[in-house]
Write a structure and sequence with these properties.
This protein is an alpha+beta fold and 414 residues long. 36% of the residues lie in helices and 21% in strands.
């Protein structure tokens, strides 16, 4: 599937669950025809139960509901939670559901990491926010800082067609060797209210999102801000960041200072000497865990989506971002990130970094290569080839009894 730039869209930034959940639930409440929803995490907490109520109500009034969740990210949904939806006609899909092996989950790699909602083909939501209470700021110290966008306009057709295709076909994950490379669409006439839906799969669109980041950096003239929760990209993207900084572009990177997983900071810190020494300004967000995957460049370009800049997102996971050309949206997101930088971030200073010795450099190189390539190597294994499984609606006891009666009347064994 090939995507192109679309003009004439209305795009709104949504920050955290307080802004995101009411907009999504409101759109579902107004739905008349269809709701398509993909998410990595759906928890059976107050947010998940609120979504369940809205989907159930919509299904009961005749709206076609299709819901896909990741088998790794959403492993603990109760039978009652799911069966009440499927009984109402909701099509419920698991991406890569796998049984536990010796108490451990085996579907670690190639996750459905996208977060997309499309309602009636007229409004869509794309971003990094899952359906869980930890995305609300009242969750506590572990509440996540994150973003999504609400869009209306021609771009919704592309998003809706993409999700409908994902729901209607079997997963087709192929090996990395022997596959064609896809060149992402370029905006020939940059303007305002323009959007491009970009996704990463394990087929022809393996590095589309990464390519957009690299092109953005190579084309930057003045200023770039990247806020990314799990930052551990490959050599090419790191080099583009450094090159941009060395030609006079102010490049600022916001990463987690209070990570939800300690390994995240360990990995990012391996890159500090290279980036800071190359002129990139690195900041750690310390208010709470950063979960955002956003960036702005100069006055027009911006992106919001699900893709981290780490091996899982760039090499294995199914991801989706919206690339946006719009001055007003760029300024809105830029203002938000500037507030984070001023109030909630600490800059990583070069004079505070460990001195670079041969021993320290050798250790960093070894660890970098291991962390960078281990997920991809593990992902080649057949055990990690994902499947999509639909959860069938439960057999209703009263219907089962009636069927048996009807069969006996006709002399047929039930």
């Amino acid at each position: 599937m090939t995507m192109n730039w679309r003009d004439g869209n209305r795009i709104q930034l949504l920050e955290n669950g307080e802004q995101f959940f009411p907009r999504v639930f409101g759109a579902i409440q107004r739905a008349q025809q269809s709701v398509l929803l993909e998410t990595f995490i759906l928890f059976e907490d107050n947010v998940g139960k609120a979504l369940h109520r809205e989907l159930l109500a919509a299904a009961k009034r005749g709206v076609k509901i299709e819901l896909m969740v990741d088998g790794y990210g959403s492993p603990d949904l109760s039978d009652e939670f799911i069966s009440s939806l499927t009984s109402a006609g909701v099509r419920f899909l698991y991406y890569d559901p796998r049984p536990l092996v010796m108490g451990m989950r085996t579907n670690v790699f190639r996750r459905l990491h996208r977060k997309i909602v499309v309602v009636d083909g007229v409004i869509a939501f794309v971003g990094g926010i899952n359906f869980s209470a930890e995305h609300n700021t009242d969750f506590g110290p572990e509440a996540k800082q994150d973003y999504a966008v609400e869009v209306k306009g021609p771009i919704v057709d592309d998003i809706g067609a993409f999700v409908a295709e994902a729901f209607g076909s079997e997963a087709n994950t192929r090996r990395w060797w022997g596959q064609r490379s896809h060149r992402p669409a370029r905006n020939q006439k940059p303007g305002d209210a323009q959007a491009l839906f970009v996704f990463r799969d394990n087929d022809e669109h393996r590095d589309d999102i990464e390519q957009h980041y690299m092109e953005m950096l190579s084309n930057a003239k003045q200023d770039v801000i990247i806020a990314n929760a799990y930052f551990f990209p490959g050599y090419r993207l790191l080099r583009e960041m450094k090159n941009a900084a060395q030609r006079g572009v102010r490049v600022r990177l916001i990463v987690q200072g209070e990570p939800d997983m300690p390994i995240v900071k360990v990995g990012a810190e391996l890159l500090y000497n290279y980036l800071v020494g190359g002129g990139v300004e690195v900041y750690e967000y310390i208010r709470r865990p950063l979960h955002g995957k956003v960036a702005v460049q100069d006055q027009q370009w911006a992106t919001v989506g699900s893709s981290n800049l780490d091996p899982l997102s760039l090499s294995l996971n199914l991801e989706a971002n919206l690339i946006i050309h719009d001055r007003q949206f760029n300024q809105t997101l830029r203002d938000n990130l500037e507030q984070l930088l001023q109030k909630d971030c600490v800059r990583v200073r070069e004079d505070k970094l460990p001195k670079r010795t041969w021993l320290q450099l050798t250790k960093s190189v070894i660890v970098f290569h291991f962390l960078r390539h281990f997920p991809a190597i593990a992902g080649w294994l057949p055990a990690h080839t994902p499947k999509v499984k639909q959860v069938p609606p439960p057999v209703q006891p009263e219907l089962e009894t009636q069927d048996r009666v009807d069969s006996e009347k006709q002399g047929v064994k039930s």
